[in-house]
Amino acid sequence: MDIEELQTFVEVADAGGITSAARRLGVSKSIVSRRLARLETGLGVQLLARTTRGAALTEAGIAFRDHAARVVAEIETAKAVILPNGDLKGRLRVSVPLSVGPTEFAPLLANLAKHHPHLHIHASYSDRFVDLIAEGFDCAIRVGYLQDSNLIARRVGPFYGKLVASPDYVAIHGEPQTPHELSAHEALMQGTETWQFSDGDQVVSVQPQGRFKADNGSALVPAALAGIGIAWLPDCLVDHHVASGALIPILVGFPPPAAGIYVVRPPGQFPTHKVRVLTEFLIEHFGTE
């Protein structure tokens, strides 16, 4: 029994199958299968029941999983202690939002890589909510308001946005004075979404409607500049347009509730050292409030 076999078992147990675990580990499915076979042979018990839909833990596998995860986490921590300057090794696969990721997070990931020359960072930029387990990610950076899920999230900093429109749009269609008046306006959206606004101590939710949609926030900026509708967009995408007068803030008396930047990881009691370092790195940059 060795650490690679234990790590492989934990990945398969958490991912629910050999294919997803192999993707997370960056090895072939045959290597994963051989490691599992050696581990089960060494223990003399069957840990996983292979099925056409993946791999399910046996009773022995359920009992063994948490112990194996604890050992893997302790070994990772021990390695980190003896590495020079707390260096990191291995691969970190992280999902990053496309709209703001290249400008807001890519420089930080590059800086992390610079500080840890033996760390392999694989960043995937997309605004869709990826399945971290099935697609083999160690974690994701997500912004805004988190949906309910079984994932574990750590807030690493604040995230600000505002409602904006072009002066031409306002001149033609007028400016809504309350959130409920948005129903009479064209909204620029990334999908079927809910906009939230603060009205004193109350949160007002609105279901916007519009004819222009894009699955990327950056792609909505030109539509807002063209006067097609009103958009809720991150400050980092629109502040320079607001400063120039090309866009104007809308409903400033009803600011959106505080949103956040989060590091999200698959469920499990023991986060990897790499994910912990990334989380601490982002907290240091953004601050918790």
Automatic annotation (TrEMBL):
Residue ranges of every copy of the HTH lysR-type domain listed in the record: 1-58
Family classification: Belongs to the LysR transcriptional regulatory family.
CDD domains: PBP2_CrgA_like
Protein's name according to its UniProt entry: LysR family transcriptional regulator
Domain of life where this protein originates: Bacteria
Keywords, ordered alphabetically: DNA-binding, Plasmid, Transcription, Transcription regulation
Gene3D superfamilies reported in the protein's UniProt record: 3.40.190.290, Winged helix-like DNA-binding domain superfamily/Winged helix DNA-binding domain (1.10.10.10)
Entry keyword annotation includes Transcription: yes
Provenance organism: Devosia neptuniae
Signal peptide, first to last residue: none
UniProt xrefs under PROSITE patterns: HTH_LYSR (PS50931)
